[in-house]
Design a protein that fits this description.
Alpha-Beta Plaits; single chain; alpha+beta; 104 residues; 5 strands
Length: 104
C-alpha cells in the first residue's frame, strides 16, 4: 500500500489525497486518508486489485502526486511538493477494510 509524504498548505490536505487517488479510482476499489504533522501531510492509500493490475495502479498512484497540483471542482488549485513515497503491507488494523475492498 502506498504512503506518500507531501508538503501542502493547511487547506490542501484533502486535495492532496484526492489528487493521488483520482487517477486510479476507476481501476480499483480504494480508500485514502491523510494525516497532518506540521506542514507535512501523509497520505495512505489502501486498494484492492487483481495481481495483473497491481503494477499499473501503483504506477498511477506514484505519478499523481509528482504533478504537484490539482484543480478542485471549485476552481481552486491546490499545490504540494512530493517529499517521498513508499509501499507498505496492509496493517493489522486495516485488514477488515481491505477485505471489504476485495469484495467490492
Amino acid at each position: 500500500m502506498p504512503t506518500c509524504g507531501l508538503r501542502a498548505g493547511r487547506s490542501r490536505q484533502r486535495c492532496a489525497g484526492t489528487g493521488i487517488t483520482s487517477c486510479q479510482c476507476r481501476l480499483a476499489p480504494h480508500h485514502s486518508w491523510a494525516d497532518r504533522a506540521g506542514s507535512e501531510v501523509r497520505v495512505r492509500i489502501l486498494f484492492a486489485a487483481e495481481p495483473d493490475m497491481e503494477t499499473v495502479i501503483r504506477q498511477r498512484i506514484e505519478l499523481a502526486p509528482s504533478r504537484g497540483q490539482l484543480q478542485g471542482p471549485d476552481g481552486v488549485t491546490a499545490w504540494w511538493h512530493l517529499r517521498g513515497s513508499q509501499h507498505s503491507d496492509v496493517r493489522a488494523e486495516e485488514m477488515g477494510h481491505a477485505e471489504r475492498l476485495i469484495r467490492t
